[in-house]
Amino acid sequence: MDDSQARKFQKDLNAGLVALVLLAVLAGSPEDLYGYEIAKRLQRANQGEPLFKEGTIYPVLRALAAGGLLTSRVVPSYAGPPRRYYRITEEGRAVLRQWSEIWRQTRGFVDRFTEGTES
Fold first, then answer.
1. What's the whole-model pTM score?
2. How far is it, in rounded angstroms, from Cα 53 to Cα 39?
3. C-alpha distances in Å from residue 10, one per residue of 17, 28, 37, 96
């Protein structure tokens, strides 16, 4: 099997899922999170292997904030550059519920074919 095909498939799949996963991470956090912290949580959730490149997370966070699904604030850091913290909005929670349902339906549809149980 050609690894480049697998990497391209994973990249294409991730492109559509990053926003959903980021909303879910922020919805599950009682506190505001900054990008690097989110990236580390995603890495830990995947047994230490990052599924999404850290560089892909930041533009998606900015786009979600621009769309009103997240709020953000910048906090000075004593150990480096300022950090931008994100929090999910009520609109973001509503979109997360909607996108989660779409994901469940899509996953079920794909599973029926990949597992050979379509009727």
1. 0.88
2. 8
3. 10, 25, 23, 22
